[in-house]
Design a protein that fits this description.
The chain is α+β, with helices and mostly antiparallel strands. It has two helices and four strands. A four-stranded antiparallel sheet has the order 2-3-1-4. Strand 2 and strand 3 form a beta hairpin. The radius of gyration is 10 Å and the shape is globular. The model has no long low-confidence stretch (mean pLDDT about 95).
Length: about 60
């Protein structure tokens, strides 16, 4: 299983983490996702298209750095 870590700008609280996790978790191929606003990262486990992940995060209102 592949693991991908992306930097996400704009997360400030647990609600932000939940929004990002929900957006990414809805994508095909995602087995697990964890967002962390203290490190500005999201870790995704599974076979995913990083462009699709970035688009989902940006559609949720955050920026992938």
């Amino acid at each position: 299983m592949a693991q991908t870590t992306l930097t996400v700008d704009g997360m400030a609280c647990g609600g932000c983490e939940e929004t990002v996790e929900d957006a990414v978790g809805a994508l095909d191929g995602v087995d697990a996702v964890t967002a962390d606003n203290t490190t500005d990262t999201v870790e995704i486990e599974g076979d995913v298209d990083t462009d699709a992940v970035a688009a989902a995060i940006e559609d949720a209102g955050y920026t992938v750095a």
